[in-house]
Amino acid sequence: MKLKKQLVSEYIDQAKSKISKNKKLFLIVVIGVAGMLLILLSELFDTEDTVKEDTAASTEQIVTGNTYKEKIEKELLSVISKIDGIGAVDLLVTVDGTTEYIYAEELDTSHDESDDEQKEGYNNKIVIVDENGVQKPLIKKIIEPNVTGVLVVCTGGDRFETINKVQKAVSTALNIPASSVCVVKG
Question: pTM of whole model > 0.90?
Fold first, then answer.
């Protein structure tokens, strides 16, 4: 044991003397150690920020019925305002229900045959995923609320041609009947 310690200390002493004699080697070692320390420090700070960003991103993904409605209104306003002859425009979108999330599930089945009876059992479990230390359910599908109607108030809302263009554009964009789109002069 003493021999091993002595060999290791001799090896360290030889390395120290080589490094102290050769300035280029000394500089390379110092830069290497500084680089490793910087990488270590950056990893410590990045993981904290990444967890915060991932948590914020996962909460942003959850959409309520109101934010969905606001998103649709904003997109429609952007498109409709470009229609020739419409003028100044405001709109209101009505939706039925809220955003619904369908989660991925594991289905465990059991089959038991004893005597004259057969029993089957089912057990559903929601799949949980771990993203950077945050556990959350795995979303399989998102069902947005149904758009039930749109009210468009515009300065060109008294002309039949403008009303027809707006009704066709909105009904096509939202896949709703033209009768669910009301266009009036404002």
Answer: no
